[in-house]
Specification:
- It is a single chain.
- A hairpin with a 6-residue loop joins strand 3 and strand 4.
- The strands form five sheets. Strands 4-3-9-5-8-7-6 form a seven-stranded mixed β-sheet, sandwiched between helices. The protein has a four-stranded antiparallel β-sheet with strand order 14-15-13-17, sandwiched between helices. A three-stranded antiparallel β-sheet has the order 10-12-11.
- The chain has 23 helices and 18 strands.
- It is of the alpha+beta class.
Length: 670
């Protein structure tokens, strides 16, 4: 990639396009002759302009000034959460494409998913691996097909593109499709976009390659045939290298790194595993020469740095004039309302009129402040650059920035409605969308988080426990029963064994599996999650190459033989359990002694095979026999997203919270 002018090596692009055009010539020579010059130029112009755009990043750390991706990129590593195989992304790994073809990159806020996609897009051209198409999924609206969106993307030139010809190109193949930001699809369009994306991939997957990036999202179950990867945490050396890349003066980075190496700074090292938080730490330190010890303090210092926004070209004391004339705290208050409004509608990118409407609503909410809506928009783009403009679209510089302001709104501006808002989130059908906001809120207002979210998790678990313990199976040891109760909290697990041990597809089970899944889907907040896994066991063949199969979110492990099929679905509230686990709550643990390479052989009578059983505590369930009960527990631990809550400790913790609430209520009685 030539940074001097941002162009890609044009000869490589021409070679790739020429090869594709020649392939089309052999099958449709007469028709393509008429369109060849237009289409060759169309693709060439698109790839050149798209690569120039993706090669430049808007960085909030650099006050949204544009930098070349390689100037601030450190190679990130994709890692499979199951096989642990790794692929370092200093270029697009050819072996990754050839091995899987369908690749899903999921991770939490700030891990660099979009940056990795941009790097791979640019590399695909440099390495001559195929013709890349980059689509930001949040841009696709209801009624718009993927083909329509690609046509819109290709319209960077004035040529008109016919859908049937584009369809023919994609059928021929040699394209790499990069679909970025599945989790950023607005909620009101997510179902239709997901269906459209499924259909597009199904139609063209044979001769092309596909990438999708997303935060964890239950709707990703639709893409069960994709191989999932996460982004490996930065090492301390990685984060220090990234800090150095942001420091053009060479003065800030050595001082910051020196402070981070002090013994009392070890608690901050967990933030350094995340590229975004590492970058925000640099910005915060550059502004105040102070290291914030909590995540929300990072964001406050980032906001302060952007609000003050010293222009060093005019002297360190020069601060840009704000169009709104608002003071920092007042500007922050307006942004809190905008951030919360965006959270409610689950959207971070807008056309101009949409964003001005949100600003107008926030101005009315903050009715003691006086400013023009267009002035605030100008400030957000220039003097307090927390939004980016991309053509007709206006987007938060990073979704986590919006989530910070939303969390601050709940804490500072919702007054007596705090608990109702958190309870509504707890029961929301899209709870997983709010997990990063709740993570921030935990640090901002632990007391209320504890009184609402932690309290309800504990209460729900104790209710779940007490209900199931009554239906306990007498011949099963109590520790094993307790383990099954833990394994089924906010979870449903299903099992079916194939009677002939030679089945190569699941068509015979589709209807029965769907009936079981319907039971899950009809329960509040339950959906087939992205962790839905089918483990395939075979007593004679441990490792066989089988084609991935997907149906209603089911995925398979290609290396296992076909004998036993396992499927799990989780209530989205398990994300709150995960959050509490990450906050080191002592009553929550995860299985640590699970051997995922060990084959669990569960024997049942032939009459029970080819039937789907839920792994609950029913006495007539063959998997609940004394012989099979422990093995079934082991299988669930191996194949599902599991958190273990100690009943005894949960009761103690719930009692502590209730005692705290009584003390608080007593303060109101003088």
């Amino acid at each position: 990639m030539e940074n001097e002018d941002g162009n890609v090596a044009e000869i490589i692009i021409e070679k790739s396009i020429e090869r594709l055009i020649n392939t089309v010539f052999t099958s449709k020579k007469t028709q393509v002759k008429k369109i060849e010059p237009d289409y060759k130029k169309l693709f060439q112009d698109y790839i050149l302009k798209k690569s120039q755009k993706l090669n430049l990043l808007n960085s909030i750390v650099l006050k949204n000034s544009q930098v070349f991706i390689d100037d601030i990129y450190i190679p990130l590593t994709l890692v499979s959460p199951r096989t642990r195989e790794e692929h370092k992304i200093d270029k697009l790994p050819r072996e990754l494409l050839n091995k899987y073809g369908l690749i899903l990159i999921t991770d939490t806020a700030g891990m660099g998913k979009s940056t990795v996609m941009k790097k791979m897009y640019l590399s695909s051209i440099e390495e001559d691996l195929g013709l890349p198409i980059f689509i930001e999924l949040r841009r696709i609206k209801n009624g718009i097909s993927i083909i329509d969106e690609i046509k819109r993307e290709l319209s960077v030139v004035s040529s008109r593109i016919e859908e049937n010809v584009l369809d023919f190109f994609f059928e021929k193949g040699n394209f790499i499709f990069f679909f970025d930001g599945f989790d950023e699809i607005p909620n009101d369009t997510k179902q239709s976009v997901t269906i459209e994306l499924e259909q597009f991939i199904t139609k063209y997957f044979s001769n092309n390659y596909f990438f999708i990036t997303s935060r964890p999202d239950t709707s990703l179950s639709a893409f069960g045939e994709f191989q999932e990867f996460k982004i490996k945490d930065l090492t301390l050396d990685d984060s220090f290298e990234l800090i150095k890349k942001y420091d053009s003066t060479g003065k800030i980075a050595p001082l910051l790194i020196s402070k981070l190496q002090e013994g009392n700074m070890k608690s901050i090292h967990e933030f350094l595993t995340n590229p975004l938080l590492t970058s925000l730490l640099y910005l915060a330190f550059e502004h105040k020469q102070k290291i914030p010890l909590k995540k929300h303090l990072f964001y406050r210092q980032v906001y302060d740095a952007n609000f003050e926004n010293h222009d060093l070209t005019k002297g360190e004391s020069y601060t840009r004039h704000k169009h709104t004339n608002l003071q920092s705290d007042d500007f922050h208050r307006v942004l809190r309302h905008i951030g919360f409004s965006c959270l409610k509608i689950q959207k971070i990118e807008f056309e101009k009129d949409e964003l001005l409407l949100l600003i107008s609503q926030s101005r009315l909410f903050c009715n003691d402040l006086s400013f023009k809506d267009t002035d605030l928009l100008n400030d957000l783009l220039k003097t307090v650059p927390l939004f980016n403009r991309d053509g007709n679209y206006y987007k938060w510089s990073h979704r986590s920035i919006q989530e910070y302001f939303a969390a601050q709104f709940i804490f500072k501006d919702s007054k007596n409605e705090q608990k109702d808002i958190l309870l509504n989130i707890y029961n929301h059908k899209n709870l997983d969308y709010f997990t990063n906001t709740l993570d921030l809120y935990y640090d901002i207002d632990y007391k209320i988080f504890r009184e609402v979210l932690e309290y309800n998790i504990l209460k729900d678990f104790i209710t779940h426990h007490n209900k199931l313990i009554k239906s306990s199976i007498n011949e099963i040891d109590l520790p094993l029963l307790e383990k099954r109760i833990q394994l089924t909290f906010f979870s449903h697990h299903f099992l079916v064994q194939d009677s002939n041990k030679k089945l190569t597809d699941l068509s015979a089970y589709n209807n029965e599996l769907k009936k079981s899944e319907k039971k899950v889907r009809d329960s509040p907040n339950y959906e087939i999650s992205d962790k839905l896994t089918m483990l395939l066991f075979n007593e004679t063949q441990k490792y066989t190459n089988t084609k991935n199969f997907t149906s209603s979110g089911i995925i398979t492990f290609p290396r296992y033989g076909l004998n036993t099929f396992f499927i799990s679905a989780h209530n989205k509230k398990i994300e709150i359990v995960n959050l509490l686990y990450l906050k080191n709550k002592e009553y929550i643990s995860i299985p640590t002694d699970v051997n995922r390479d060990f084959f669990v052989q569960i024997n049942i009578e032939d009459q029970h095979k080819d039937k789907v059983f839920e792994l609950d505590l029913q006495t007539d369930n063959p998997y609940n026999s004394k012989e099979n009960f422990k093995k079934t527990n082991n299988l669930i631990e191996r194949g599902a997203k599991i958190y273990l809550i100690s009943f005894t400790e949960a009761v103690k913790e719930l009692n502590r919270i209730e005692d705290e609430l009584k003390q608080v209520n007593s303060f109101s009685n003088f």
